[in-house]
Amino acid sequence: MALVVYMLLAAILTFGHALYVAQGLQTAADLAAREISRTPLPAVMTFDDPPNPTNEDEGGAIHHSDVRGRIFDEAFLVIDLEAFYSQPHIPEDPPNFFRHAVPQMPLLNQQLATLMIVDRPDFDGDGAADAWLMRYPGALLTRSPPIDPPTGVTYPSWVAT
Fold it and tell me: Which 3 state secondary structure label does DSSP give 137?
């Protein structure tokens, strides 16, 4: 009997979390569509063409500096929590990811922050965690070459570019 109750509770929690994540993704997609539709971009621009380093109006909208600075920037999909918690904060106000880091992110990244997971990857295979990351599931942990910030934007030290 106890096993049945345990399995029923586990199923309820699993499906509840799945519905929560699905609703969060739908809300984020609605926000992204609304904000991109309000952003003045060239009429011939597609959504996800590769970036053109010489002319940002020729790449996809997702690589445009206005979109990356205000709506979505893939650099904020992986956050280095060790760097975040090691930076100086006000002594009376202990660091809090959702109070101090999330407001500095573009809008869509703010929406996705509630769906992020904490990860301690072991890059070298020695059995010890090599990093303490908060990341969106499926986001790459290492990037080559590093992501350059959009024009006029400086990434905080805790953005894992």
Answer: coil
Dihedral, CA atoms, 31, 35, 41, 44, nearest 10 degrees? Answer: 30
Contact 4, 11 (CB under 8 A): no
CA 53/CA 138 separation, integer angstroms: 26
Cis status, amide bond into 145, omega within 30 of 0: yes
User: Residue 12 and residue 21: Cα distance in Å, rounded?
Assistant: 14
Task: Specify the pTM.
Answer: 0.81
| Distance in angstroms (rounded) separating the CA atoms of residues 108 and 24 | 11
CA angle centred on 79, ends 127 and 145, rounded to 5°:
85
Closest to 70 in 3D by CA, of 105, 97, 102: 105
89/44 Cα distance (integer angstroms): 45
CA distance 20 to 24: 6
149 contacts 155 by C-beta, under 8 angstroms: yes
Q: What is the pLDDT of residues 22-65, one digit of tens each?
A: 999 999 999 999 999 999 988 888 887 777 767 766 778 888 88
